[in-house]
Amino acid sequence: MGKAQSRVYPAVENIRQRLPFPLLGLDSDNGSEFINGLLNRYCQSNNITFTRSRAYRKNDNCYVEQKNYSVVRRFLGYARFDTDRELAITKEILKLVEIYVNFFQPSAKLISKIRIENKTKKIYDTAKTPYRRLLESGILIQSEEVQITQTYHSLNPMDLRRKINKLIQKLNQVNRYKLVESTNT
Prior knowledge:
Helix content: 55-70%
Strand order of the largest sheet: 1-2
Number of strands: 4
Oligomer: single chain
């Protein structure tokens, strides 16, 4: 909650600890919550390449934040969630969404673009989940691969969706109650 650098730094560390592989780079948008000395020193001390948008490409923000719509907004929508209770529910939702998307939502990656006269033909690979891409990458050691495969086999996508939907309903109910309270005062 909020955009303070003191909140972003622990969140990045939390993400880094949860990854099944080393974090090699961090590409952020241009906000002061990211572009600051604290995060820069953190990246330097942990050998993480820290970049913002590509040089001389001021319109890169859409690429850096491309998953906001396809993941976060698709589940949470565009409502303003600004209370501690909403934050707690949102964190619960996003933990489950992370698992659901990474293990059960395939996506196709762009392989190449071919320009034919006035049209661009895009060629995509076969859609795969991030879980499948990670296994195929070969960067995991055997014990990590076994652990992540066991996690996959322990999951039920329908159960995850039910839990996510239930939490979304709870979040929307808390949000509606908050809005009613603010109009009554």
